[in-house]
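[job 0417] fold request received: Neprosin PEP catalytic domain-containing protein
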Amino acid sequence: MVVEPKRNKQGSQEEEEKEGFLYHSTRRRQHKCGQNMRKSKDYSNISSMGAMEFSCCLLKISSIIPIVGVILLLVCSSLISPVLSTSETGIANDKPRNDTQSFRPGDEAQKLKRVRQHLKRINKTPLKTIQSVDGDLIDCVIAHQQPAFDHPMLRGQKPLEPPERPKGHEREGKIYEESFQLWHVTGEACPDGTIPIRRTNEEEVMRVSSVRRFGRKPRKFVRRDSTGSDHEHAVGYVSGQQYYGAKASINVWSPRVANPYEFSLSQMWVISGSFGDDLNTIEAGWQVSPELYGDNYPRFFTYWTSDAYQATGCYNLLCSGFVQTNSKIAIGAAISPTSSYKGGQFDISLLIWKDPKHGNWWLEFGSGVLVGYWPSFLFTHLRDHASMVQFGGEIVNSKTGGFHTSTQMGSGHFSGEGFGKASYFRNLQIVDWGNSLIPLSNLKVLADHPNCYDIRGGINNVWGNYFYYGGPGRNVRCP
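[job 0417] inference complete; emitting structure tokens
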């Protein structure tokens, strides 16, 4: 059964210092560093730069909105298909090498053949390719030729026009800045009428046990609580009503992930169905996953499934499903900058809502920038509404050597440290049946293993409903 969390006391907040502090502390260094990088267009030394020095070159971000975590779907919700990014660009990096030793020579050759056939299907012919400083290749693909339109019900169609926003949705005063992802550092952009897609390579697909499962979360028995699971969570959630969307802001960190087979993420889940084979979810947020992406950068991601991760759904644009409409955001690309301990705090805002006219689920990023939509026909229960919304963090604990993992959640610090030190979700809202954004009225919080990762919620006039969450993993109280 679901674990009923204790309600945390509404903590006081450093209200006045937050708003002006979030985005400005590193602007001057960022501008100078970005100018130098664009002038030289020489990124060969990027991997040898110190963390502080490198981050100054990435400090362009706008507000984004989070996407939440699910508590019961927690168990299967974020296992990542093993993927590595090949350094096709010649840029030095520390991405893991391809591991094919588990395959016999004949099996490996056969799998390589299947991999290449699969890549022909998902890597569409680009009009232009942009080399990112982190080694990614970003292909600019004509919008109606993206993977979504391989779906039989979308074949021959084009992306839809923007829908009506929820009532009460106020765009933030700051205009969206396009350079919140690393691939924008080059100064290059995709042409109008195209969308940016992170290219998939052979090494990435060869990492998975089955080509058919590439880009999907492994099938796993879904429990109503996460006790005993290798997934651990600290989440806030609402349930018991009909939900037509959700909105939040999450600050972005670069948590340490202890080994290539673990991950750390912060996201929002929109959920419907039972926790069996008919579970429907829509997910979005940021994640650090060496196994999926081959590095330790936090990356913007999406996911969906309509059958509890069995045969439907995928990350990002790795299958026919999500329809991207934006030419400036690459789903799966690295985010910059990130928040720093006792330093600048950078958050992203995310809004997911159901278009009342056509029934599709749309995703908005930052100040009114539409990323795209999940067509309603992808789902069963979510064709109508969601029955639960969750926000929060999740990690995988592989218990290497019999000890709890030292993979960090959020900032790697416990919630009690507060602003500038702990990670947070703020301005949590849901979309009601009348397509209106309203505050949460019954937010509950839950931490699976509070000695390893914890959470505490509150409410005030500046942040509305909010919570701090996270932790270091292994410590004296979490052996």
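[job 0417] notes: The radius of gyration is 21 Å. DSSP finds seven helices and 18 strands in the chain.
[job 0417] exit 0
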